[in-house]
Task: structure prediction
Amino acid sequence: MIDFKTASLEEVLNHKTMYYDKIDFSIVKKSWDILSSHISIPFVIHIVGTNGKGSTGRFLSHYLNKKSFKTLHYSSPHILKFNERIWINGEDSSNKQLTFAHKKLQELLPLELLKMLTYFEYTTLLAIVLSDNLAYLVLEAGLGGEFDATNVVPNDLSLITTIDLDHQSFLGNTVEEIAKTKMRSVDTKMLIGYQIHDEVYETAKIVKQELKQEFDRNIVIQTVKILINMN
Result:
């Protein structure tokens, strides 16, 4: 067993489980509660859906960067190198940047949390640390929405890409159930992109009312109509 307080990032990630057998959002939430007083979070754009999250996030991040906004895009999985997951101002994160974020987590988080965080949760926290004092943080959700590690920070805007049947053992057995789980990650506004299932639009209205009743949130829903007449 390694010492999570002193091990390198590579060693820590090699000893991380990819997922919980059962999702336990409390671990990453406790970690964020500690980190939140040490990090200035930028404007957060949360991208949730089944298909198109990666391309949507990267196009958006490129645009923001070209407009001279300091932007971090967090995505998964990587193809060739871990650094691809955290893209900062037009480039993949450097080993130096990743080491800095890793050491900050080791310094601030207690050993128990360092051990219990999953691979995806730990890498999400690395991205959040590196977003400190940037203008935008574009977070691509993993398999979920409401209880996804990327939902641990308050989001200013949620982009809902195409939703279909996926990860049913975690998210639900119908499009409606999956859409509801993903959309319950919304904090303020959600833009809904083109959908192949009309149930997604109806579910958005239901989720808006549920969240408003539970948390008194003023959720704004807009549908983005692209290259097709949605009537």
About this structure: The chain has nine helices and eight strands.
